[in-house]
Amino acid sequence: MEQWSIDRIPVSTNDHLLEHEANAYLLTHNCEDALLIDAGYADSTQTILQQIERRRAKLHGIYLTHYHPDHSLGAAYLARLTNCPIYCHPLEYRPLLELYASRSIEIKNIHIMPSLVNGSTVTHYNQSLDVIHTPGHTHGHIALHDKTSGIMFTGDTVIPQGTVWIGPPDGHLRDYLQSLDQLIARKPSTVYPGHGVVTDQPDALMTAMKARRLMREHQIITLLQSSPKTLEQLTQEIYKESVPTEMSWVALKTVQGHLQKIREDMIISVTVDPVANQISYYIESTTSVK
């Protein structure tokens, strides 16, 4: 069976986004027809177009792992230029349209297909990718898995450096941990992540990512058992000076995501100080999981 060629296309942006570099992946068949997984930023489409031209390929579809701007803003421009559809999970459809509207991106005559549901298959000639719904980073996040070769495109569920941002309203930590378990169970041979380099030791990476999340959860529970703390105080104690000021909101959202899960698992006491306009959280040392 002939395999497709996979080009990792690192793309960067001059826009002031959380992530300044992301991956797009061009999958090319020997007949020069191609698929694109994720599409980078609005100002990085030229890099992707140049790779398509090098391959002398015709783009047949753009498949988004999720709607976040570092993966989807380039899709509208590329779809218009190449006259191909954009595919996403149904739960990403509305946020994607809202993102494009907020950036004044014209989508007239662009076909956006919310058809990447869990268990469906992306078929291209004699190759296929299974769609896996992996909520956590966003509600409609997906991964794509070629179970024949073992390769997997994970978007932002698995990245080799740093940690994945999980926080409301887009994300949910319990969903994310379950998604990691789902991907670990599939035993991929190689992971193509949304950011960073391709890894051929995905099991160790995903296991470590899960352990880090559980470690952080334990740390928050321990802090809340010692004394009442606000969300801001928790964030300061956990991250101290390790997070740049401009990124502090990300750390805050991350802790908020952990608190969301802990409040579902345990009884947390909440106190409100109307004068200081503060909410504090506290866990009795004898409290157990609900």
UniProtKB/TrEMBL annotation:
Pfam families the record matches: Lactamase_B (PF00753)
GO MF assignments: hydroxyacylglutathione hydrolase activity
Protein name in the entry: Hydroxyacylglutathione hydrolase
The protein's enzyme class: hydrolase
First and last residue of the signal peptide: none
SMART domains (alphabetical): Lactamase_B (SM00849)
InterPro entries in UniProt: Metallo-B-lactamas, RibonucZ/Hydroxyglut_hydro, Sec-metab_biosynth-thioest, WH-like_DNA-bd_sf
Keywords, ordered alphabetically: Hydrolase
Enzyme Commission code(s) on record: 3.1.2.6
Lineage, opening ranks: Bacteria, Bacillati, Bacillota, Bacilli, Bacillales
Chain segments annotated as transmembrane: none
Species assigned in the record: Sulfoacidibacillus ferrooxidans
Residue stretches making up the Metallo-beta-lactamase domain: 21-195
